[in-house]
Design brief:
The protein is an alpha+beta fold and about 230 residues long. It has one domain. Helix content is about 55%, strand content about 20%. It is built from 7 helices and 8 strands, in the order E-H-H-H-E-E-E-H-H-H-E-E-E-E-H. The strands form 2 sheets. The chain has a 5-stranded antiparallel beta sheet with strand order 4-5-6-1-7. The protein has a 3-stranded mixed beta sheet with strand order 3-2-8. The longest helix is centred in the first third of the chain and has 25 residues. It is globular. It starts with 5 loop residues before the first strand and ends with a helix.
Length: about 230
Amino acid sequence: MKKIKNYYIYQMNSFTINAISLVLLILLIIFATITTPYLLSESLISIANMNLLLFFILFFAYLILHEILHSIAYVIYGGKYNKIVYGMSLEKGILYCLCKQNVTRRNILHSLMYPLFFIGIVTYIISIIFNLPLLFALSIFNLIGCGGDIIMFIFISKLDKDIMFTELDDEMSFSIYTDKDISKNNHFGLKYLGVKNNIERNDLEKIRISKASKIIILVLLILCIITLFI
C-alpha cells in the first residue's frame, strides 16, 4: 500500500534566531580577540573612520549577496528561478529568499550553507591572509546573520534523504513533504504548526518589501545623509 505524503509545517522563532545571532557575535569576538586581535581592532577603526552612508551601502549589499547565494544554490541543485522570491522585513530583522516549489533535501541543505561558507568562512579566512579589516568585519556580520540557516540545517539534516522541502508565503515558515510522521520531530528554534495534505503557494512579486522596511530604510538613509553635513 502506497504511503500518503503530507506537508508538515514549521515556523522559525525570531527571538531564538536573534538570541543565537547574539551568541555567535560574542563567540566570534572572543575567537577574534584570541586569534587575530590586531585585525579585529583594525576592522573597528576602519568602520569608525568610514563614511556612514558608504558603510550602510556596503553592509546592505553584503546582506543582499547573502540571499542571492541562497537562490544560486537553489537553481544549481534543481530549483527553478521563476519559483524564487526575494524579500525584506526589517521590522523582523530579516532579508529572505524563498523557493516556492518542492526541492530535495540535498538542495535545501546546500542553499542554507552557501552564504555561511562563501561569504562567511571563506571571506573570513581571506581577510586574515591578506589583512583586509573591512572584509573581516563584513564576514563576521554575515556569520552572525546565519542563525536561522543553522537552525534549519541541523533540523533538516536529521530527516530522511527522500523528504522534500518548500517555503510558504510567510517568510518565517516552511514545510517538509514526506510520507513519514515527523510531527514529533521538534527542534530548538522551531515551532510545529500542523500538517496538511496540500498547501497553497500564492503568486508573489519577484521582490517584496514590507511597508515597515521602506520606512526603516528611508530613516536610515536620512540619518546617513545628515552625518555628511555634521
